[in-house]
Amino acid sequence: MRWLIGCAAAVVLVGAVTACGGEATPPVADEDEHHHHGDGTVAEGSGEFDIGLGGPVSLSGDFDAISYEVTYAVTGVTVVETDDAGEPAAENDVLLVAEVEITGFRGDHEAGPGNTDFVFSLLDAEGREYPRSDQVVAPELVGTVEADQTLTGRVVFDVPESAAESGSVRLAAEANGSDLLIDWEY
Predict the structure, then answer these.
(1) Comparing 10 with 140, which gets the higher pLDDT?
(2) Band of the pLDDT at 146, cuts 50, 70, 90?
(3) Which of 4, 63, 141, 155 has the most crowded Cβ, counting Cβ within 10 A?
(4) What are phi and psi of 165, to 5 degrees?
(5) Where are the chain's structural domains?
(6) What span is annotated as the signal peptide, if there is one (predicted)?
């Protein structure tokens, strides 16, 4: 996906972080434009942020001249033996399933593997990264989130058994040179 105008993002837990992309001086969303869904302080910039399961992440911006604002939250992580087709992990030992909730507040936002600007992966305790698996455990996190809607679904990772013990579910959001990495630790 191509972003036509900048992006603003906020990580909301104890604090909030906003990242904006665009021209040499990135636009900053003010309180009238971007409503932070939670309490905290706003800091500008890009970077990597570690939060706990359930911590909401508010993302807003413009895509194809349509403004959107959504909140992502990874609410849980579980291990399953097989996918919906009855198949075990294709490459490693186990299937790790992340429960994700996306709530729309303004505009619409595409969720799922087709949105290459918002990509999920899994980091194990040693920092090794595993991509989202093609295997499915329903309901899969895919669809369009509109204002006043909540989409819940699952993202599956094919990982070694050791990765099921501890790690992070990562959301990488990229737009106009701004990189935001959000890690929900489990």
Answers:
(1) 140
(2) very high
(3) 155
(4) -75, -45
(5) 7-185
(6) 1-19
Domain topology for 7-185:
Immunoglobulin-like (2.60.40)
Q: What is the pLDDT of residue 65?
A: 67
- Is the pLDDT at 120 greater than 50? The verdict is yes
Task: Find tokens 């501890």 and name the residue.
Answer: 166
